[in-house]
Amino acid sequence: MRDIGICIGNLGRWGEKTSNIKKILSNIEIDGVELVFKNNKELNNFKLSKKDAFFFFIYKFISIHAPWKEYQISDTSLKKLDKIAKSLNLLTVVVHPTQIKQNKWKTLCFPVSTENLKKDRKHETILEKNSDVGLVLDVAHAYAFSPNETKKIIKKFKERIVEVHLSSRVKGEDHEAFKLFTKGHLRSIESIKKLSCPLVLETSTAFSENKKKIKKEIKEVRKWLGEGDGKKKR
Fold first, then answer.
1. Which of 8, 127, 143, 188 holds its CA 20 to 30 A away from the CA of 176?
2. 33 pairs with which residues across the strands?
């Protein structure tokens, strides 16, 4: 069955403490977690003890979204990301195409991916010039660009895709719940079913801290994937 994780939103809302994160994640059957940082300050204030790092090893994959609100990721933040990466079984660090200068991508020591955005294809330049950089396919961003964009990205960069950010797009807003997908948007992302990489729910439901809603959404996604009744078999 497909590996599914959840994106737990801006860590600053939870006091940047992993004890709060663990409380939210308990009793939710998922394969992975994406830790998201809003800005450089939030990242640099993040504390990860050996005990907390050990907790994350129960998951098949961990990814980190670098500070998404920053125009540039600071050198201090890059060092902090490297430190965190060494403590976790990290799949990738997600960085927007313009957040790191072109000559720095090759110098990074942690596994890193770029992401397709809504208004351009700058991710293509990063991927073409840096063979070790992966791609995180965001289907909401892709749909904002074009209904055919997800299919085009997969056709061109299938072997580089390390995870998919899954969320619907409603009235110009990304990161909406899976249940709000339109039929047209769902048709446009059928091709992600054939990928083997993890799906990460980057939805308002995943951000909600509501365990019941998160469990329901995971079940809905598994049913859409054709995985029986939506329950993961052990």
1. 127
2. 6, 62
93 pLDDT band, cuts 50/70/90, is very high
Burial of 62 (0-12, 13-18, 19+ CB in 10 A): buried
pTM above 0.90, yes or no: yes
CA distance 114 to 129: 12
Helices (H) and strands (E) in the chain, counts: 10, 10
By the 10 Å C-beta count (0-12 exposed, 13-18 middle, 19+ buried), 211 is classed as middle
pLDDT tens track for 41-54: 889 888 888 888 88
| Whether 43 contacts 37, CB under 8 Å | yes
In the chain the domains, ranked by start, together with CATH numbers, are: 4-224 (3.20.20.150)
186, 49 Cβ separation under 8 angstroms: no
Which tokens hold the place of 62?
């961990």
102-159 residue pLDDT tens: 889 999 999 999 999 998 999 999 999 999 999 999 999 999 999 999 999 999 999 9
